[in-house]
Amino acid sequence: MSGKPKLHYFNGRGRMEPIRWLLAAAGVEFEESYLEKKDDLTKLRKDGSLLFQQVPMVEIDGMKMVQTRAILNYIATKYNLYGKDLKERALIDMYVEGMFDLNEQLMDYDYLPADKKEQHFANMMDKATNRYFPAFEKVLKDHGQDFLVGNQLSRADVQLLEIILMAEEFKPDILAKFPLLQSFKARISNVPAIKKFLQPGSQRKARERPENVPKVLAIFE
Amino acid sequence: MSGKPKLHYFNGRGRMEQIRWLLAAAGVEFEESFLEKKDDLTKLQKDGSLLFQQVPMVEIDGMKMVQTRAIANYIATKYNLYGKDLKERALIDMYVEGIFDLNELFMNYEIQPADKKEQHFANMMDKATNRYFPAFEKVLKDHGQDFLVGNQLSRADVQLLDIILMAEEFKPGILAKFPLLQSFKTRICNIPTIKKFLQPGSQRKPPTPEEDIPKVMEIFF
Which residues form the GST C-terminal domain (chain B) (predicted)? Predict the structure, then answer.
């Protein structure tokens, strides 16, 4: 037993990617076990390893944790990325929940049937540029600090960077109207643990290639 | 200013109901401001009161909190319904996230088009009886304690009771195969603050009658 957290998921972003980001930002090394076919998921289920028969599942500190938010809450608290008090945590939670909502939309896109893609794309770009990014631009503007909450790095900053980079993959100039988010992106990208995660060869996953989508869906159906 | 939390939502369950349950279980009195037409939502949006232009919104301790989980996390922490340490919190989070997933299925049932309702119903009943309730029955069986986590009342117990009662509205005998959940239900219903919330005249909301659903949808869409 290595003592490192062990992530169980398919070899792609999906719902595990925010967890990879957070562990990386915290400087925590982790291992991964990839599901490649339905049998791999069935085996985990029969083992009794999955509380609700689903992945993500992360083996950490003697637990088999499931549910993305539960896992992220645990990691964020353990590694001091969750603010210093209840009020900071409230702000972090609000911001992060908004990001989760946008992330759902961005994540779903690659798995949609072709005839639904265009409308979904328009809707998610609209939400990003008219609902979520303006809210975070305003947060940064109002306090003038380098980080979203409490003048120190938190999970909110890590998840916002992740979402910004994902959105830019869909629309490279999506931050055009958000100067503070642009400098935020540069700044957080340069945090050493995050800079390392952004380099080739890290455990950060690429966007799903269209030809792989059926194979991924087959694991979960 | 009364000092009581003030809930902004339509006069129905939706995403606010679990917050009402949590406040009630904690013995916290709260006020409610109901959105009745689209203008009511527009006004709140123009006020700058809604971080992501959405409700639920709860005015509490000088904040205008949005995002159901952020609000629930804050209330649970403040009123000691979130376990006593990080490990208990991890368990609570896992359980509560599973309950959230089942709650989404229940919530979405009412707004399904007529031709999709039957399949949705079958799916949600299947998930309740074959995925979620067995998991919680096992938790209670494995430790033999009265509460889900840490031998004391937590948000997990409150949220599980909420979801059991909702499931029974759809299928009265749904706990037939779950004797421990049946006794859990009786036990948690008898906690004084919860017992009070379950009585007529409390701020607990009934299911939205089918004929009122279009009116509710109009507020939000």
Answer: 85-208
Q: B133 to chain A nearest CA, in Å?
A: 10
* Residue A58 structure tokens: 């992360």
Provide the b/e sequence for A141-153 (b: ≥16 CB within 10 Å).
eeeeeebbbbeeb
The SS3 of residue A149 is coil
Give which of A61, A62, A5, A10 is closest to A29, Cα–Cα.
Answer: A5
Query: What was the ipTM of the complex prediction?
Result: 0.96
Task: Quick: pLDDT tens for A88-136.
Answer: 999 999 999 999 999 999 999 998 999 999 999 999 999 999 999 999 9
Cα distance between residue B99 and residue B107, in whole Å: 12
The verdict on residue B1 lying in a domain is no
CATH label of the domain that carries residue B114 = 1.20.1050.10
Find chain A residues with C-beta within 8 A of B76's C-beta: none
Residues A72 and A93 occupy one common structural domain: no
Nearest-Cα residue of chain B relative to residue A137: B51
Residue A104 and residue A70 share a domain: no
- A166 shares a domain with A74: no
Query: Which structural domain, as residue segments, surrounds residue B161?
Result: 86-191
